[in-house]
Design goal:
With about 450 residues, the chain is of the alpha/beta class. It has 13 helices and 16 strands. It has a domain of about 260 residues: Alpha-Beta Barrel (TIM Barrel), CATH 3.20.20.120. Strand 2 and strand 3 form a beta hairpin.
Length: about 450
């Protein structure tokens, strides 16, 4: 932490007064509240933003978001298992659908439902979503901005310098091996940088350092498909440049490999954006101190509640967390509410610097969402504190081309009945235990059949 100097002091400074007291929604009777539908729409941006809306029998609704570039159907598939339930019972609803969630794309639907439930519950109770997770430990969050790469060190340095002039204080760069692949002997047959290629990549880092200086944090990402031995070579090559972290060298599920990399170099390691769940994904990394820092994402790692569990367990083991985010303002604000409650917060990502209409997708929140000094303010208004700007969202809708509803929250009736889950018990012809041909449920699941006396 000392390496990041005054930035952390500003982030962790005294929080202002808690959210103003607001009465619960007068349009909701909490005990009688029921989920009636889940619908969605997908916004085309630097990534696709799959946004869902959970509707209720009392008009109040909640917004959530699936991990960027994933399919909105991940959330809609879970609709039959949450409709009819009280959306305020967040723990039990999430426990009921966890069995459908695994590492990979399925975690985005689970996460989106969690976010929407926190938005909805906050509106009903008249409190910000962070209040449902715990105490607000900070009012403003340090932001890091991603910056697209360029093989010319001076051009990349100029791009990053522009970010600095815009007020950002924490930076991340992409270091694809393809950035040097056109140079002789720079990459091997697998597309991995050779020692010469690493020299060229390091020249790009040097160009960025020359532009923004050495006193500001600079992280790096997107190294390609590396083995553990490849990653160790990369990490060692990066040591002179004092990176804040090197991200996702290998699969986040390979904690043993990560521990080998982490123990072999002074370059800090980080992973986690694609992992789901504390027990399923993060616990082994934490218990074995396999990486230096963790990187949960509320739209993939399990939503706000699960990310809070992950962060709390990491904090108890003295590990810091940066928060990954490459989604719309819905995901960005959900991340802010979560990050406000973390004891071990480092920095929150903002991945839409070059999208001029990004913050116009929502209303109801102070703008600019990302302020001129590279910080984001955490709202104190109920729920996530935002509503969608319907006109702007409709300007940027994507047609998926897949069998899911297109348009702006169109009916999703094709998902009303379960398409995943346990076997549906149907009648079928078979021999029963006594060898008689019957057309009924399997005898192990059916009630005993009445038989005529012999």
């Amino acid at each position: 932490m000392a390496a990041f100097g005054p930035l952390f002091k500003m982030t962790e400074g005294p929080a202002s007064a808690q959210a103003q007291s607001r009465p619960p929604s007068r349009f909701s009777a909490p005990s009688a509240l029921k989920i009636t539908d889940i619908r969605g729409c997908t916004v085309a941006s630097n990534y696709d933003y799959p946004i869902i809306r959970i509707d209720t029998n009392q008009g109040v609704y909640g917004l959530g978001e699936v991990f960027c570039n994933d399919m909105i159907s991940q959330a809609l598939l879970l609709k039959p298992f949450v409709t009819g339930k009280n959306p305020l019972e967040i723990d039990s609803i999430m426990a009921g659908i966890r069995r459908f969630t695994f590492q990979g794309s399925s975690s985005g639907g689970y996460s989106a439902i969690d976010i929407a439930l926190h938005d909805l519950a906050g509106k009903v109770y008249g409190v910000p979503a962070w209040r449902l997770l715990g105490n607000k430990l900070r009012n403003r969050l340090l932001i890091y901005c991603d910056t697209t790469g360029h093989p010319d060190p001076k051009v990349y340095g100029a791009r990053m310098k522009k970010r600095q002039q815009e007020g950002f204080q924490f930076f991340k760069m992409d270091l694809y091996s393809s950035m040097v692949s056109d140079r002789k002997d720079a990459v091997d047959a697998r597309g991995v940088a050779t020692d010469l290629g690493l020299k060229y990549l390091c020249e790009i880092i040097q160009g960025v350092r020359d532009a923004i200086g050495w006193s500001v944090p600079l992280a790096a990402d997107h190294f390609g498909k590396l083995t553990v031995k490849d990653a160790i070579r990369y990490a060692k090559a990066f040591e002179p440049y004092h990176l804040a972290w090197a991200e996702d060298f290998i699969s986040p599920m390979d904690w043993r490999g990560f521990k080998t990399i982490t123990d072999s170099s002074t370059t800090p390691t980080l992973t986690g954006e694609a992992l789901f769940g504390l027990e399923e994904g993060y616990k082994a990394l934490i218990d074995n101190r396999a990486v230096d820092y963790l990187h949960p994402d509320v739209t993939c790692s399990g939503g706000m509640l699960e990310c809070k569990r992950i962060a709390d367990y990491a904090a108890a083991n003295d590990m810091l967390c940066a928060v990954h985010m490459a989604n719309s303002p819905v995901g960005q604000l959900a991340s802010a509410h979560f990050a406000a409650t973390m004891r071990n917060f480092m920095v929150l990502e903002y991945h839409a610097v070059d999208i001029p209409w990004w913050q116009d997708l929502v209303t109801g929140v102070k703008k600019p969402l990302i302020e001129s000094d590279g910080y984001e303010t955490v709202p104190d208004t109920p729920g996530l504190g935002i509503e969608l700007n319907e006109a702007v969202v409709k300007e940027h809708l994507v047609t998926t081309g897949y069998p899911v509803p297109d348009g702006y929250f169109e009916p999703s009736t094709m998902f009303d009945k379960p398409l995943i889950g346990n076997h549906v018990r149907s009648k079928y012809p078979h021999l029963d235990a006594e060898g008689n041909l019957v057309n009924d449920l399997d005898e192990s699941t059916a009630a005993p059949m009445s038989r005529p006396p012999r």
